[in-house]
Write a structure and sequence with these properties.
The chain is an alpha+beta fold. It has one domain. The protein has 7 helices and 9 strands, in the order H-E-E-E-H-E-E-H-H-E-E-H-H-H-E-E. A hairpin with an 8-residue loop joins strand 1 and strand 2.
Length: 233
């Protein structure tokens, strides 16, 4: 099934939950998607299942979709087909085409293989452009033929998380962004849609947490069972 067929199935198919992905931090679910006799499996991440983060606003699934859209625009082929759905079993969220990996390989087992060096170089450039703050070793999986980048929900932060290496030249990031031609303008719509009003929501959350912390710090100390005095809770 090609990418267009996968996208159509993910966007329009009925969704049936099969189970939860073990050890997933944001309640990722394995689902089966069906449409007109076709079936496929996907990873469903509902906003309702996300754990709140102090440095990212709710709606991480939008960033998953935006990462895929950026991958398509850059023509890097790193991220499997990902779409947004408003009618999921647990509400709005993302669906990403399921990859059957061997559950053994990850970055540290794959990086020594010369055939993957170009792929990892492309991934490093992609993560700089997407400002990925969370590329763990397990976020690279191997399906027996090729590697895939998964768990891209912590991309597109308003503050820079990825910095050029010491050997980079000024403007190299811009060169990467524009190497496929007007990438900024081509990705403006999906990225803007994915992040929404991120700056205003992020700032309001940061102010609210700062006020909470100041209040917590100014409360009277309390005693623990050991008799030690601790700041008020």
């Amino acid at each position: 099934m090609n990418r267009d067929e996968q996208q159509t199935l993910l966007l329009k198919g009925s969704i049936e939950v099969e189970g939860r992905v073990v050890a997933s931090s944001n309640q990722a679910l394995l689902v089966t998607v069906s449409l007109d006799g076709l079936e496929g499996q996907a990873c469903y991440k509902a906003e309702a299942g996300e754990r709140p983060l102090w440095d990212f606003p709710d709606g991480l699934w939008r960033r998953e979709v935006a990462a895929y859209e950026l991958d398509v625009a850059l023509e890097t082929g790193l991220v499997h087909t990902t779409v947004g759905r408003e009618d999921g079993p647990f509400g709005v969220g993302s669906l990403q085409w399921w990859v059957d990996d061997n559950e053994e390989d990850h970055y540290f087992t794959l990086r020594e293989h010369p055939q993957f060096h170009d792929w990892f170089a492309a991934l490093a450039a992609f993560d700089v452009v997407a400002n990925n703050a969370d590329r763990k070793a397990g976020h690279v999986i191997y399906d027996g033929e090729r590697c895939w980048a998964i768990d891209n929900g912590l991309c597109f932060h308003e503050q820079t998380n990825c910095a050029p290496s010491s050997g980079s030249t000024p403007g190299s990031t811009s060169t990467v962004i524009c190497s496929s031609g007007s990438i900024a303008s081509r990705t403006a719509t999906p990225v803007t849609w994915a992040t929404g009003s991120i700056q205003s929501s992020w700032r309001s959350r940061r102010v609210a947490r700062a006020d909470w912390w100041r209040t917590r710090r100014t409360r009277s100390p309390t005693k623990t069972r050991t008799g030690r005095r601790t700041p008020g809770r």
